[in-house]
Amino acid sequence: MAIERTLAIIKPDAVRRGFIGDILKQIQAAGLMVRGLRMMRLATAQAELFYEIHRARPFYGSLCAYMSSGPVVVAVLEGENAIARWRDLMGATDPAKAAVGTIRKQFGIDVEQNAVHGSDAAETAAREIPFFFSALEIV
Ligand code: ADP
Ligand code: MG
């Protein structure tokens, strides 16, 4: 299996409620290596660009307002099959439908405020990682 990199975001609801440490701990316990890490606040326009693929969805405006409502933590995770492993650890988009033990089940509030983001495919990771990190920031 190939070594992959994926983008993780600890979203504003989880940062606000003090779950940065818990989430990073579970990422590391799952054997995913943190190769890049930063706390920042997205401007609305930056959130709109990041979620551009969802522009036509009814929740797009609300999603972008939420993602720029407070600080986030962005991270580059690395490991064998890291993209699918991080998606598995995150759980389903709607925390109410997410499996027990997943991060969204534990820390998500609702289908929008669902604690974390993860790239959904190799091509997505290849766009999302450089959206936030320069080569020099990935160690
Ligand atoms: P995922 O983050 O699991 O890949 P999507 O790519 O479908 O899910 O959606 C991106 C983000 O948009 C979700 O993580 C969530 O924050 C928000 N979202 C998705 N579906 C809805 C919805 N029906 N209502 C409100 N927000 C949503
Ligand atoms: Mg997605």
Descriptive labels:
alpha+beta; 139 residues; binds adenosine-5'-diphosphate; globular; binds magnesium ion; Alpha-Beta Plaits; 7 helices
Strands ordered across the widest β-sheet: 2-3-1-4
H-E order:
EHHEHHEHHEH
* CATH homologous superfamily title: Nucleoside diphosphate kinase-like domain
Bound molecules: adenosine-5'-diphosphate, magnesium ion
Number of domains: 1
Enumerate how many helices there are, as a single number: 7
Largest sheet composition? 4 strands, antiparallel
Strand percentage, roughly? 15-25%
Shape: globular
Roughly how many Å apart are the termini?
Answer: 21 Å
- Secondary-structure-derived class: alpha+beta
**Unreliable residue stretches:** none
CATH architecture assignment: 2-Layer Sandwich
Mean pLDDT: 98
The helix content, as a percent range, equals: 25-40%
Indicate the CATH class: Alpha Beta
Give the beta-strand count: 4
Specify Rg, calculated over alpha carbons: 14 Å
- CATH topology annotation: Alpha-Beta Plaits
How are the elements arranged and paired?
Elements: E1 3-10, H1 12-16, H2 20-29, E2 33-40, H3 44-50, H4 60-67, E3 72-80, H5 82-90, H6 103-107, E4 116-118, H7 122-132
Antiparallel strand pairs: 1-3, 1-4, 2-3
Adenosine-5'-diphosphate (ADP) binds next to loops.
Would you write up a description of this structure?
The chain contains seven helices and four strands; from the N terminus they run E-H-H-E-H-H-E-H-H-E-H. The chain is of the alpha+beta class and 139 residues long. The chain has a single domain, classed as Nucleoside diphosphate kinase-like domain (Alpha-Beta Plaits, 2-Layer Sandwich), CATH 3.30.70. A four-stranded antiparallel β-sheet has the order 2-3-1-4, with helices on both faces. The model has no long low-confidence stretch (mean pLDDT 98). The site of adenosine-5'-diphosphate (ADP) has 9 residues, from loops. Adenosine-5'-diphosphate (ADP) binds next to loops.
